[in-house]
Design goal:
The protein is of the alpha+beta class. It has one domain (3-9, 21-227). 36% of the residues lie in helices and 19% in strands. It has helices at 37-50, 52-55, 63-80, 94-101, 138-141, 148-162, 228-234, 237-248, 251-257, 262-270; strands at 23-25, 56-58, 105-111, 115-121, 168-177, 200-210, 217-227. The protein has a seven-stranded antiparallel β-sheet. Strand 6 (200-210) and strand 7 form a beta hairpin. Helix 3 packs parallel to helix 4 (94-101). It is globular, with a radius of gyration of 19 Å. The chain starts with 22 loop residues before the first strand and ends with a helix. The protein binds protoporphyrin IX containing FE (HEM).
């Protein structure tokens, strides 16, 4: 993807805000396919061969839903991306087979005492460790996120309980990193070093849908990364809006995201 085609820039002049930010999703747009498909799927195959324990985590409770997810992905590709041909190795865990078909990372949550992450293939984590999240609840998964417990825990749990197969949703998250690599499974929250020329704007497009048979909830994460410098060159508002967000993010969130001192550096560059 060229930076001119960068699909999502979720910044505006209103600054930082912590919000669910869910929008209705037409299932025709559930999976996004672009010209990075073959290189990203190749990278997934390499990670699955070399770092399986880092990029896949499963519990028995997630098996049936993973099989349903694989079937839904196959249906969706046939219906909305018929130009794509693929083969499925039916001897693998279905979450792994499903992951090989799409650029998205896939997380399956199953309701027991609570909604718990019971199967996942996450090849492109943005500085978090899947092995520490498997089997745990939404609240526990989000334990490191400052303010999540107060502002997002209740609405997110309620949303999961109300979600139905016929109404799906999507949302965006973004961050700024000093490394464009898609596979970043380490939780270090280093502030971007260097100047804007070395920073990368990373957007996660996330979708949430409930599977009709098992009633499990599937959370997909699709990553888009572009050079912050190039985005600024193509969109003069980008630097201004980025600064507004960095300046207004609470200190704890700046620490968590690894943005400490970044607003000042950016301000100097914009002057
Ligand atoms: C409506 C649903 C959800 C909302 C509103 C939400 C919100 C958030 C927010 C605000 C963050 C902070 C990160 C940032 O802004 O860059 C975050 C991080 C994260 N979310 Fe979610 N999230 C949702 C669903 C999920 C689900 C279903 C999973 C399942 C795997 C998940 C996994 C994570 C992880 C692993 C992190 C990073 C935590 C860490 O640093 O260890 N989220 N989420």
């Amino acid at each position: 993807m060229s930076n001119q085609d960068f699909p999502y820039t979720p910044l505006d002049n209103k600054g930082w805000r912590m919000a669910m930010g869910l929008r209705p999703l037409d299932l025709a747009n559930w999976l996004e396919v672009d010209d990075q498909r073959s290189s990203e799927l190749q990278l997934k195959n390499e990670l699955l061969a070399e770092n399986f324990e880092i990029v896949v985590a499963t519990n028995a409770e997630g098996y049936e839903a993973s099989a349903e997810l694989l079937a839904c992905i196959e249906e969706s590709l046939k219906e909305f991306h018929p130009e794509i041909s693929y083969k499925v190795d039916r001897s693998e865990h279905p979450i792994v087979s499903a992951s090989r078909l799409v650029q998205e990372d896939l997380c399956v949550l199953v309701k027991s005492d609570d909604w718990r992450l019971q199967a996942a293939s996450v090849c492109f984590p943005s500085r978090w460790d899947l092995s520490t999240k498997i089997g745990t609840t939404l609240d526990s998964i989000h334990g490191p996120v400052p303010g999540y417990d107060v502002e997002l825990s209740n609405p997110t749990n309620a949303f999961f309980d109300r979600l139905k197969p016929d109404r799906s949703f999507w949302r965006l998250n973004w961050t700024l990193l000093d490394n464009p690599t898609l596979h970043q499974p380490f939780s270090s929250r280093r502030s971007p070093s260097g100047d804007l020329d070395d920073w990368h704007f990373r957007v996660e497009r996330q979708t949430l849908r409930q599977l009709p048979k098992t009633k499990a909830i599937v959370f997909t994460i699709r990553n888009y990364v572009a050079s912050a410098k190039v985005l600024r060159e193509h969109n003069p508002e980008f630097g201004k809006h980025l600064l507004a967000a960095l300046d207004s993010a609470p200190t704890k969130m700046q620490d968590y995201k690894g943005w400490v001192g970044v607003a000042d550096k950016l301000r100097n560059e914009l002057c």
